[in-house]
Design brief:
about 80 residues, about 30% helix, Translation Initiation Factor IF3, 4-stranded mixed sheet, alpha+beta, globular
Length: about 80
């Protein structure tokens, strides 16, 4: 049975090391995660894209992302995707 993606909210502090660790812990039991950027994090496309790339860079190369609106969808792959 697949588990639904976990939802994390990022505020004005952005993707801090604590948030990155929380995301890593979520991927122990799940394949997908959903990250919502709150209004205080800055609502412009470039900021959302930079935040997504920063998260992926710190997670490793077995992860991909897709940005839809103010939400970042993360997926963990079993094999190397790059």
């Amino acid at each position: 049975m697949k588990r639904p993606p976990a939802t994390i909210q990022i505020g004005k502090n952005g993707a801090t090391p604590g948030v990155i660790q929380l995301i890593k812990n979520i991927f122990i039991n799940r394949e997908n995660s959903k990250i919502v950027l709150l209004k205080s994090a800055g609502h412009d496309r470039e900021n959302i894209q930079e935040t997504a790339e920063k998260i992926i860079e710190q997670l490793g190369k077995n992860y991909t992302y897709k940005v839809v609106g103010f939400t970042i969808f993360l997926k963990k792959w079993r094999r190397d995707v790059r």
